Amino acid sequence: MQERKLFTVTIFSENTVGILNLIAIVYTRRCINIESISASACSIPGVHKVTVTSWSDRPSMIKVVNAIEKIIYVVKAFLYTDDEIVYQEIALYKVPTVRLVDEPELEKIIRRHNARILEITHDYTVLEKTGHNDETEALFEELKAYDITQFVRSGRVCITKDPVEHVTNYLAERDRLRSIQLSGDPSHSPHPFFSEETKENTNL
Amino acid sequence: MSDHKIPGSEALIRSLIAEGVDTVFGYPGGSIINVYDRLYDYQDRLRHILTRHEQGAIHAAQGFARATGRTGVVFATSGPGATNLVTGIGDALMDSTPLVVITGQVASSVLGTDAFQEIDMVDIANPITKWALQVRRAADIPSAVARAFFIANSGRPGPVLLDIAKDAQQGLMEWSHEKCDYIRTYCDRPALDYHALSQAAGIINSAVRPLILSGHGVMISGAEPQLRELAEKAEIPVASTLLGLSTLPSSHPLFRGMLGMHGNIAPNVSTNRADVIIAIGMRFDDRVTGRLDGYAPHARIIHIDIDASEFNKNVPVHCTIHGDAREVLTALLPLVHPARHPEWLASFDRLDAIEKTEVIDRQTHPASGPILMGEVVDQVSTATSDDAILVTDVGQNQMLAARYFRFSSPRSIITSGGLGTMGFSLPAAIGAKIGCPGRQVCAFAGDGGIQMTVQELGTIMAYDIPVKIIVLNNSFLGNVRQWQELFFNARYSQTPMTNPDFVTLASAYGIPGEHITDRADLPEAITRMVKSPTAYLLEVDIHKTDNIFPMMPLGAAVDELMLNATDRLDLSSL
């Protein structure tokens, strides 16, 4: 039996309609539950980064990553375990303001967890904490005693520890080879990442 | 180039023609009526085959694509027209068949309102296409079509869906068409890894018992000459997958048969004796590998494929070469040393001899009793000089046709391998014949499968398509019945069939035919069918409860074969 652990998959793709659905299909087909997901722009213009976490075993996850890479508008997908990435989540908590006023212990908890207060109203106070899952979870556990009314946690975002920027290099190489193919001249300047044509087509 | 504006529907037609399309299979309807209206003016350049059901259209397009290597094109309307294509789209994905499927869609203003015949086709198609796109603006049609054709028929081919909203069909635009051959996120031709090539050559050159597994990828890339050269240079026996049949002529001395559940004994058993396996353009399907922990235990495996996600998917391999089979083999050939393996080949001969006496002779030349499927297939193959295109349905007819039909040129087998779609043969044969009018096309179907798409006899009638249809009638869903007999105590749950008179049915469509019940009448009937200049339906009453053997039962390894219902192959003396 393969060891089950939490895997993080990062996916770099063009920003096209429906890409998230295509990624989700790969997981649902294999009955792998997505623990968290986040999607946003990344440092490469026009390219989006999706970060998905899920509990599974390595052989299954390798197949997931291979299947995701087959999606036409996916540039690359990578598989990581927690030791290979720097990762973070953000959590928000809503507690009744009256408890904050009445209980001096609550202030200590907020300090100890390095949480921030985002908003205070007469009725409620919203706290924010960033950290790993277990850290945001720990604050939630402590706040349970103070009538917490809402708790929400974002999907994971992560940065790799790998010194090589694979996606940037890959796209640059693709564009360089394409320039050579088009011009027959290796010194031909590479295409910009997004030609006007690509821009138009990705907005189809 | 045109300097005046045309509707998107006409732009679609022009772009298809610009992509080299001359034949479309389809069925009109409300949401694609604009396209059909414009088609009316282009019928001299774009031939439309009106099938009798959308499923017939897509299977015909598959048959066309697989016989020719060109991209098959399908038109259907929104809603039920589109959903009727789903089986064919899935089939094309499993069997790497290049298709561009064009469905009409309701106007973009009413999308999501449950409008009449609205269905979310792109989301239905997402898991079963290589790419699916909804087009909502006329101006986007040419680039969408260009991308669709590039994606469908490059890399590992597959089906692409373009779902074109009514307003995109109606909208006016200035048409120009530029073919697409580059998408930065999609690598259609991976660069060759010379390190992997030299590693592979080293493994091959050290092999004592090498075996080539030739798959559909060899056919798709047109690598048949390189396959042959590699096999001959290093004297390596070649086994093929179901879809890889005809990549090497059946008569070639190094062609040693078909792999898999009902494949030949020698290639299956030899898989577990080989010390080197060179798998080319195949995907280690479970019907080929049997029980994975009993598969090829002694072999170092080299896997050549254009689809990197196939590597180590089912079977862990020792060397992977990512690329087009023809490019890879061309680069590999100079690195491979000439070699001879007479003892290894002799071991195939011994296994072949067992199969011949225990299985083949009994199936193709029975002395008495009811007609058997194998003898019909064998005689049709002979009557067509072993050079017809074989199209099969799914089930016993498929396996026996694959076992006993012989091939002398490439692209000669069209069968639903991955999805196993009953009803595939009749429409696929229509498409194959339209794609290759100069070749004889023989469709083998059972009495079950033929009835799943039997309405396509109407298409054959309307367009006078001279396909030869052989209905192997055992009044059973034979393959399921076989499993019921062998593994479910002969409880024939819902497998006996009450059938129409197929010859009478064909005659209603003006298709000549005859019904054979006696072995003595079979050879002349086959001759009449083969010589007929028109379509022909030959219904043959065959043994009701005959089984296909050899058989690798579910859960067995490739060398654990049943020779018949009671005996297993004994390898101790072989």
Largest sheet of chain A: 5 strands, antiparallel
The shape of chain B is: globular
Question: What CATH architecture of the largest domain in chain A would you give?
Answer: 2-Layer Sandwich
% residues in beta strands of chain A? 25-35%
Runs of chain B in which pLDDT lies below 50 for 5 or more consecutive residues are none
| Known CATH architecture of the largest domain in chain B | 3-Layer(aba) Sandwich
Biggest sheet layout of chain B: 6 strands, parallel
Q: Report the CATH topology name of the largest domain in chain A.
A: Alpha-Beta Plaits
Mean pLDDT of chain B: 97
DSSP summary: helix tally of chain A? 7
Give the percentage of residues in beta strands of chain B. 15-25%
**Shape by Cα distribution of chain A:** elongated
Instruction: Domain count of chain A, please report it.
Output: 2
Give a count of the beta strands of chain B, DSSP E runs of length 2 or more.
20
Query: Which two chains have the most extensive interface, and how many residues on each?
Result: A-B, 28 and 26 residues
Can you describe what's shown?
The complex is a heterodimer of chains A (204) and B (574). Chain A is of the alpha+beta class and 204 residues long. Chain A has two domains: 80 residues, Alpha-Beta Plaits (2-Layer Sandwich); 72 residues, 2-Layer Sandwich (Alpha-Beta Plaits). In chain A, 36% of the residues lie in helices and 33% in strands. Chain A has seven helices and nine strands, in the order βαββαββααββαββαα. In chain A, strand 2 and strand 3 form a beta hairpin. Chain A is elongated and about 75 Å long. The C terminus of chain A is likely disordered. Chain B is α/β, with parallel strands linked by helices. Chain B has three domains: 168 residues, 3-Layer(aba) Sandwich (Rossmann fold); 154 residues, TPP-binding domain (Rossmann fold, 3-Layer(aba) Sandwich), CATH 3.40.50.1220; 171 residues, Thiamin diphosphate (ThDP)-binding fold, Pyr/PP domains (Rossmann fold, 3-Layer(aba) Sandwich), CATH 3.40.50. Chain B is globular. At the A-B interface, helix 1, helix 2, helix 6 and helix 7 of A face strand 6 and helix 7 of B.
